[in-house]
Amino acid sequence: MDSTSLVALLQEAAPDARIEAVPSVDPHPTVYASGDAFPALARTLRDRGDLAFSVLMELTATDFWPREPRFELVYVLVSIANRLRLRLKVRLPSEDPRIATVTDVWPAANWLEREVWDLFGIVFDGHPDPRRLLMPEDWEGYPLRKDYPVQIRMTPTAAEPLQVTEEEFRASVARDRLTRTTPR
Amino acid sequence: MTTAMPDLRTETMTVNMGPQHPSTHGVLRIVLELDGETVLSAAPTIGFLHTGIEKTAEQKKWQQVIPLVERMDYLSAQSNSMAFCMSVETLLGVELPERVRNIRILIAELQRINSHLVWLGTHGMEVGAVSLMLYCFRERELLLNINEMLAGFRLFPSYVRVGGLREDLPRGFHDAVRAFLDRMPGKLDEYEDLLTQNEIYLLRTKGVGRISKEDALAYSLVGPIARAAGIDYDVRKVFPYLGYETYEFSVPTHSEGDAYARYLVRVAEMRESLKICRQALDRISPTGVFAIADPRITPPPKDKVYTEMEALIQHFLIYSQGFTVPAGEAYVPVEGPRGEQGFYVVSDGTNRPWRVKSRAPSLLACQALAKMIVGGLIADVIAVIGSIDVVMGDVDR
Fold it and tell me: How far apart are CA B114 and CA B144, in angstroms?
């Protein structure tokens, strides 16, 4: 099945999910869906015979701070029966990012969602075990967020936690990251 | 027991296994609730080896990430770096020369044998076959020597680079690999003589740590664990990359889903890998092209750096500023020794990655561990942890 017919099939299977296809560089089709459609959309993807995305290969997030909507959740799905791959993405805002859990649909999502909560602070409503996975339980902050203060060169003080303004962060990133202007 | 002696007071016992237990393959901690010797519940706790590699990678230039990701799954370093490079190359739109693709296939398969040898040795030792470990590490030494020959580094060669390989194959490489390939089948027979029909090994592994096909799918298990449970999924066959579709090999599967089936699958996989290696070696010429000829991505030849101004500038630019990667995202999976392994890479168009996420097969295997050991005996916990072949560096990253 090619990418266009897969997207058409998804739109037909889940009319409420506002499926929006975007071009991808790698051979796997990429679609955006709205977060409200979960977990019903996940169940449709798994149970429909012509989709049968039975394996949740990967669940992760990306922080595009300071862009809005800030977070993008990525579900990498594989259908072994139909030899299909799909990258399903959901945009989430910086204010109170939350989405319904898919642990009922794919039990593998349990630790993957815990990891995303641990490192990005995205809340999964209805998660059976919402604890940190990799960081210590009493850790403060979400380390993989872009405004988490690690890129900043400043002397740490023992008494108070590091606080970084947006300007300081931008200056530091601009110093580190380089965009070459010559055309490719 | 309680029905026979109703007045006897029974209670469950909570046992902390790890994180320093020698058979937890690193620093895995499992809180076990025991009723006598039966495991009632198991809660794996991870994170003791979390080093924030994904966060560090966001601060590094693209080519500096390669040695970092090799240290995630330290038993399959070259599969990691290959998966990462392939995602980046997809973003760059790079088409690799055929010789490079064949060399990558060869080293990926050698890496698979290498990783399976460590697994076989340690797993064998944990269930009582101590001599097996000495034998496996003896053969692994030959593979490490080949790595040393390739790149001067035995465990983390960083030989795979974005756009190809670091340098051409060394002199004598073909002979060294061929000597290994000729030696290995007989040695695999020896290992099988020691284990496959061994009464003690059969008792320790048959029917132990069983997982059904449905559960394996639900818990996203891939690689040898899934194939031992009857799921015929191998990235090399289902979503071929690097030209695996032109190679002749089969994907061994079993349906029992227990520790013994995993052993059979992995040993059969080593034999298939040897077959692929032999085919790859015949296709690779001793010298030839080893990287794409794009001055923005790959450094110039060393002799030109010393003699030509332009080459020196190019060399300096690549190693000081790095190269930029067009904005976008890519995920190109490969079949590592533990199953589908890949890097979800996001670029914002600069010389450093915006996000690097490793798809860690060991993490998901670790998650399904409780499913496999609950209801079994505590002695079997060791056999099951060994059989799923977790690498804690890959679990915690």
Answer: 8
